[in-house]
Amino acid sequence: PTPVLSLADIRWGEDGNRPVFSAETLTLEIATGPLLKGEIQIIDASLEAGRLDLRYDKAGGLALLGGLAPDSGAHAVAVERFALKRSTVLIEDETSGGGMIFTGLDLELQAGALQGPGRISGRGALDGRPVDVRLSTSAPEADASLRLVYGGRLQPINIDLIPSWSTVDERLQNAPWYTVDIDGNGTPEHY
Questions:
Q1: CA-derived radius of gyration, the chain
Q2: Which H/E stretch holds residue 28?
Q3: Which terminus of the chain is less hemmed in, N or C, by CB atoms within 10 Å?
Q4: What is the pLDDT of residues 67-93, one digit of tens each?
């Protein structure tokens, strides 16, 4: 048997008069072997009705509003499976003064550590438009590529104008690191 931690009505951090992170429920199943060695390995986790506020700073880095120290230990927490249901993510951009809001998120996350590498996939809405969400990182560094796509700063690649596109390995033709279903029609655009 593995220990299960269940929490309800969670609030963390503060930005003005609202929490940086909140959720109705969070359930974590934690592996006992690594725990005995002082490590945290989450086997299965579920978060319902969460809200997370993030900010792109002027240097292009992604940070939690309210802050999370780099030495917070996030590199020492492994996550095998994390289901996010009916949740919201607000991203503010200090440089442009704009932002975006993802609502109705139903996502599955997997990460070797909280800082990455990891994968996220699922569905939700961006500023009210349905979108498929697919993101993967290969290193625990901030990557602004989705901010650029959703911020309208990049043009999609017209693959019809690439004569040799059909000869590209099928695994690469719709690779998640440069395809995004920005308009929610089920066909990912290439960036």
A1: 18
A2: strand 21-30
A3: N
A4: 444 445 555 677 888 899 999 988 887
